[in-house]
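A reminder before we start the practical. When you read a complex entry, don't treat the lines as separate problems. The point of joint prediction is that each chain is placed relative to the others, so the output describes one connected object in space. Small molecules and nucleic acid strands, if listed, are placed in the same frame. In the example below there are two entries. Take a minute to note the order of the lines before looking further.
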Amino acid sequence: MNYNWNWQVLAESPYLGWLWAGLQLTLLVSSVAWIIAFILGSLIGVLRTLKQPVVRTLATAYIEIFRSVPLLVHLFIWYFVLPEVLPRDAGRWIKRDLPYPEYWTATVCLGFYTASRVAEQVRSGIETIPNGILDAAHALSLSQRQIYRFVLLPIGYRVIVPPLTSEVLTIFKNSSLALTIGVLELTAQSRQIENYTFQGFEAFTAATVLYIVITLVVVWLMSYVERWTRIPGYLSQGKS
Amino acid sequence: MLNLDIEVIVSALPFLWQGMQLSLLLTGLALLGALVLGTLLALLRLSPVRVLSWLGLIYVNLFRSIPLILIIFWFYFLVPLIIGRAVGGFYSALIAFTLFEAAYFCEIIRAGILSISKGQTEAGLALGLSKRQVMGLIVLPQAFRNMIPILLTQSIILFQDTSLVYVVALRDFMTAANVIARREGRLLELYVFAAVVYFVLCFVASRAVGRLQKRLANA
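Here is the predicted structure of the whole assembly.
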């Protein structure tokens, strides 16, 4: 193997700046997308647990559409096709007036995509809640809305913190797909450095290390969330 | 209003089919490789030798921490460098997918092995079988049977992931659709067609897996 090592390239201008810009975009796209995914995913997850068949079918359809089509295909449709099929003014607004259209498309699309996964977690979190708790809520004559607000969601969310951690990790990794529509995030920047300098080892190692750091930080933060939201003695009770 | 051109899809079908063959081939080969490597990694992770189980752990966590696209880039760059000559995108992608998926398969297989009760192993050992025989003849066959639904679900995900070879311009189904879309200026038709094809294939497959899972659970 014939390779000229040059780790200094990473510290040189403009490459260090590229990596930094890429890291910022990765963090930004992923965190905004996560906010969308969490809110929308919670809503759809709750809809999946309701009694009304129409609502449930719609929520299921949403999940299946996102789960059965690759994220890449979604991104292309959202970026290239959506502005064409929207009403003319809206399409023109996206293409002409929206600043950083590729960034917003990637973020919103990734958010909607991940929402389908969050929804499944929220649903399973709600479904693991023992019937006794639900019966108790009914016996206290809480309304449907109150049951979700005060009983099912507070417990459900706390049960699904561990699987949500892995969804957070996935969203950071999936944000790399944004490069296919021109968002210069971390992976794209490392590739660009490789193209310019032929120092692929150094460039990809830098990106790899940064992704590992992101993973470690997320795992560390979420372990705090997990400890902080744990319901003492809940899991050991089991399902009644 | 929209004027759809279905003709463009029909005339592109042979080209798209070639792409789909590449997607399926890549899925199949990576699946085989990942199963073998994933099983080895799972055994490594369950090894009583601390160094070996650590190696397995590091491998799995490393590959699960970085995006698949970055891994594809890594091997697209590395493989020709190691071999010393250009080998084309397909082999680089195949290696990248195999190594990447092996990390996920490893965790599934490990859980499958752990789900087999200790009594099975003890009974095998009591019958005078060697440790290797117990693993190969008793534990693994039962573990794989339990794991079939999850492994199939992971294979569907792998099939969807193969669309990412787009980043190294390998002509899989999605890239083929993209080529036609650009050449004919028919983005809407081609991308939506690609989405429908993926949807039908993956939806039908995951329904079938669901049925199989029920049947296995009842058996």
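Discuss with your neighbour: The interface with chain B takes residues 1-3, 64-65, 67-74, 76-77, 80-81, 84-85, 169, 172-177, 179-180, 187, 190-191, 194, 200-201, 204, 207-208, 211-212, 215 of chain A (CB under 8 Å). What might explain this?
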